[in-house]
Amino acid sequence: MQSPRVSRFFEQIDQAEFAVCRAINHRLRIRPVTTFFQVVSRLGDGWLWYALILSLPLLYPDQGLAIALLMTGAGLSCTLAYKYLKRTLVRERPFISFPVIQCGTPPLDRYSFPSGHTLHAVCFNSVLALTLPTLALVILPFTLAVAASRVVLGLHYPSDVAAGAVIGGVMGMVWVAFAAGPMLTVFATG
Questions:
Q1: Cβ(28)–Cβ(102) under 8 Å?
Q2: Under DSSP, is residue 189 helix (H, G, I), strand (E, B) or coil?
Q3: pLDDT of residue 138
Q4: How far apart are CA 50 and CA 69, in angstroms?
Q5: What are phi and psi of 155, to 5 degrees?
Q6: What is the mean pLDDT of residues 160-185?
Q7: Residue 54 falls within a domain, yes or no?
């Protein structure tokens, strides 16, 4: 349950970010932009990540399984973290707080802080950057598009996306720092 102090803080931030959200969300009036970001958002629901995780053992026989398991563990911890934060901080989405902002695609849940899509995308990209840097560079444009899609589609404020990126990046680095060595060693020798 959100405290009154947190509620006032988010109300102030929401007002400060409203103009930026409205300006970015205005791009939804351009049909190809809407379609592009809807597709990116849908793939960011997990579909691209699931496909990538499942293909890593095939693409990288020596270390792919360990990295896939690392990404799976990191992804599960991201899900727990963002669900806890959303339930605790209770920040309404921009299109709910400001009806002039259009919702470009149905949200997966009610609250906006932090952006779970961005959190996962940056976490996975961080894991890849530290284990398979070339693949991380290939995936980076998608990661950035996922983050942008959240504001363009009226689902998140820029601060939701920034917070999701920071949390996801830290979680990805922590998972690699503490789990990559043992996992890569076990699977390389097994």
A1: yes
A2: helix
A3: 97
A4: 11
A5: -90, -25
A6: 86
A7: yes
